[in-house]
């Protein structure tokens, strides 16, 4: 049975969601504030965290960020009344796998829960043939989540790792900002922000600045390409 931690301070909403998830065969634990949620998340092995943002004690953004540092593989679904684009970008930027705005149709929540858990299960069973990706002297290990450049360990955040992984999977192909937004941040439209540029610059500083050859290139008016030139 798949286990879910629901961190939601509205008791009525939390109990209704928990009841619905239980009816669908999930085992659900409820935390009513961020501190309790952190304690439960760090002391138990859950298959998914459903996380509100405006929580007493510790807000959802900070809690998600902490959980990502401890367990990058744990899927997090943010469920919140904050529906502005900036809120979604922030939530996905701190490591959430998906973002659903209240009020919502429970059928959509169930679909997103199943998708988050399914993706996590697939990541837990990687294809060994594709486990390690190497471009020039840059190596990314998808199982250990490690990155090396000239045998030097490169420390990346979760979102930086996912962005680099996507670029390396498509070595030599120019990838648009919209495609990166869709596949890395899972937002199916242009956010109108510079979040992609910001994270590409983060990657360049860590992966390219002190090494040769340069691998991450801008294609003006089109997007970005990772290749040896």
TrEMBL record:
Residues 130-228 bind DNA. Keywords: DNA-binding, Phosphoprotein, Transcription, Transcription regulation, Two-component regulatory system. The modification 4-aspartylphosphate is found at residue 52. Coiled coil: none annotated. Residues 130-228 form the OmpR/PhoB-type domain. One of its GO terms (molecular function) is phosphorelay response regulator activity. The keyword Phosphoprotein applies. One of its GO terms (biological process) is regulation of DNA-templated transcription. Residues 3-117 form the Response regulatory domain. Pfam families: Response_reg, Trans_reg_C. It comes from the Bacteria. Gene3D superfamilies: 3.40.50.2300, 6.10.250.690, Winged helix-like DNA-binding domain superfamily/Winged helix DNA-binding domain (1.10.10.10). The keyword DNA-binding applies. This is Transcriptional regulator. The lineage of its organism: Bacteria, Pseudomonadati, Bacteroidota, Cytophagia, Cytophagales.
